[in-house]
């Protein structure tokens, strides 16, 4: 199946074995986290619709199309946040629908026996075991030693996600003007107060 999009409107990108589509006129994104910038909602929704078209093909997608779908899934899962959503409500709905539909082709409870060993320079932290009884269960482990180096050794195929949260104060941009309002009198005394206002404006 050939995925054809209007070249004037969209562009296809391939990197690290993943595939996604972007708007040709996409505005430049600003990020306070230079190490990784998640895609905008429009790119996630656009790519999700391509995935949805692939996995809902009648009578069924070919092996080549499922390989292309896997590359799209690899990119989409990188855009997912720690709560399972994406950039907005609308793109989250489309992306989860496409990912769920894709999962119907490769999910089976039979024969699931996956182990993941999580360790750091201080030693073993936890061993995760995924089988048919808990394959849909979310398993988590808090990484309390940071910064640090962590290693995951996986036998089988599972979806793992590392989440790092921290506070970065945003830089305050210079405002074009500042408005201050002072009342006379400054304190509330009586019923007929604050009927006169002094307005001071500083323009930069």
Task: Give a verbal description of the structure.
This protein has 204 residues and is of the alpha+beta class. Among the domains are: 97 residues, no CATH class; 42 residues. Helices cover 25% and strands 25% of the residues. The strands form three sheets. A three-stranded antiparallel β-sheet has the order 4-3-5, with no helix packed on it. The protein has a two-stranded antiparallel ribbon with strand order 1-2. It has a two-stranded antiparallel ribbon with strand order 6-7. A hairpin with a 2-residue loop joins strand 3 and strand 4. Helix 1 packs antiparallel against helix 2. The N and C termini lie far apart (58 Å). Pfam families: TED_complement. One of its GO terms (cellular component) is extracellular space. It comes from Thamnophis sirtalis. This is Alpha-2-macroglobulin-like.
Structural topology:
Blueprint: E1 10-15, E2 18-23, H1 41-55, H2 63-79, H3 89-106, E3 113-120, E4 123-131, E5 150-155, E6 177-184, E7 196-203
Antiparallel strand pairs: 1-2, 3-4, 3-5, 6-7
Helix pairs in contact: 1-2, 1-3
Key phrases:
204 residues, alpha+beta, three-stranded antiparallel sheet, 7 strands, elongated, A-macroglobulin_rcpt-bd_sf, Terpenoid_cyclase/PrenylTrfase, Alpha-2-macroglobulin-like, A2M/Complement_sys
Strand content: 25-35%
Distance between the termini: 58 Å
How is the biggest beta sheet arranged? 3 strands, antiparallel
Count of β-strands: 7
Radius of gyration: 26 Å
Low-confidence stretches: none
Strand arrangement, major sheet = 4-3-5
The overall pLDDT average reads 81
SS element count, helices: 3
Question: Helical content, roughly?
Answer: 10-25%
What's the overall geometry? elongated
Structural class by SSE content: alpha+beta
Helix-strand string: EEHHHEEEEE
